[in-house]
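Researcher: Please generate the 3D structure of the following complex. Treat every line as part of one assembly.
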Amino acid sequence: MSTSATVEETAAAPATSRGPSDDAGTRHPRRRYTPQGRKSTLLTVVLWLCALYFLFPLVWLFIASTKDNTDLFSTFGMWFGRDFNLFTNIADVFSTQGGIFIRWMGNTVLYAGVSAIGATLLATMAGYAFAKYDFPGDKLLFSVTLGAIMIPLTALAIPTYLLFSEFGMTNTPWAVIVPSLVSPFGVYLIRVYAADAIPDSLIEAARVDGAGEFRIFWQVSLRLLGPAILTVFLFTLVATWNNYFLPLIMLNSSDLYPITVGLAQWQSISTTGGGGSQALFSTVITGSLVSIVPLVIAFLYLQKYWQSGLATGGVKG
Amino acid sequence: MSETTTRGRPPQPVANTRRPAATRPRIGRARRKQYVAAYLLVAPFLLVFLAMLVAPLVFSGYLSFLQTKLIGGETFVWFDNYLRAATDPAFLGGLGRMALFLVIQVPIMLGIALFFALALDSGRARTSKALRLIFFVPYAVPAVVGTLMWGYLYGNQFGPIAQAFQALGLPSPNLLGEQNILGSMMNIVTWAFIGYNMIIMYSALRSIPSELYEAAEIDGASQWRIAWSIKIPAIRPAIMLTVIFSIIGIFQLFNEPSLLKTVAPNVIGSAFTPNFYAYNLAFVNQEINYAAAIAFALGIVIMIVSYVVQLSTQRKAKDFS
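Model: Done. Output below.
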């Protein structure tokens, strides 16, 4: 309970400390010079037409998830079929191949959860140190980190695989989790945010009160970094949740697959495989629907926090 | 920053109330304590950074200089693998397709994202909050699922696009054919990333001090004019950020070709994108050394392109001012 309250308070904190950043993250929506009654209906209509484009595949996915295979091939894609089969299909998703989908979900939660928590923690500690301490070598280390943002991570995946296979560490959960712990952009975001959100005077006061450096970090600074930490967490979570390339090359046994690799495997069986494999179509489609629901909900629910965190990175970037 | 405040502050009142005077002169030790704390805070990140970023790069850089021969095993061949890459039509073809992506898809995607960001920021649209969320939702959809969905939508087995054409008695376009596959892929990437880029630009727009354009608004300047002359120049850094991220993202496309290959096996070759090529070299052909060289060459191409783009826009900005 208390943590959610602090996050809420601190979400507004940086906005009050410096003028320009009060944005979507604040609770009091600032609206400068709003000419009332000058809403444009034309613009609204145009934007909603565009919104249809974004919703089109998702609506189709939902409708297709309610159909059995016969209806999928014989009825119009953008409208419901003769029967409502959503729940049968979901049951199929969770029972195909001995219920391996549940395992894939568990793997995804494990990989994404551990990677995101770890990456956020490492990025927060390093970003905070870069923002609030002067120490020999800090400029050099930070520029190296900044430079690493430019390194294409997927191009790095094959090198990482080669290194892991040299040590015989492929086909383990670690092979997916450990490479995902590095988030140079997270370090950058925390550094930029911490520079403004944590006043130096506050740290000084805590030191004078006799608090050690780590106690200041845990008990004072961490609270003020709330929105930035949540932003880094959400984006590293999405990055690992959605990652396909790294687990694809690192993992061999389907027991270790995350949902993305598992779904791709099902899809490839359903398209290329012979007799009876077509029954997998509606399973792949419903599985896709099941896999995207948690993240979409998380993003919608937490949007005001990550938007204010991302704002900082975008402004200074 | 913190050091100067430590030194500059008159120490008496604090020292008297809180600490025995004897501990006061040991600023050197206090600062050393801060150094230690800072290094300890940075250390875990640096450790993983070295192990997971620097080490793989060094190791595969080393591998990219080797060649495995049937007789004689591994030999050091200097830049032979890179020379092969520079004249490899498969690799260059992939790079060419990505260059097309860069010239066609990135401007369209960022242009639409900028339009959305400006439209939502202007406050002229109703229900702008719902719109913002809808535009962003595809970002939370895994690229695998996005590609699967669009793959089915494009297909003529049960894709609604083909169905609609058939219902109208028209021949349905082969969206997964040779002619259209690149465009179909561009559409998937555009769909997925407009919202993400829009949010970055929108956040930057919200942080422009409103005084900058309130006067212009009152003077009756049109929203287009304000956007062009005030808002877009003000969020230049944010736009540059989206450009750089797009370049990095485009050149390492992998999910889209690898998943669309199952529905369009004859159209998408093993070298459709450079990254897909590196993957096939390493895992299908077992040419580890050449794959490492391709991955490296790709990284170098990406860095050069993003550097050139940054440089050219900076020069333009200077010309204007």
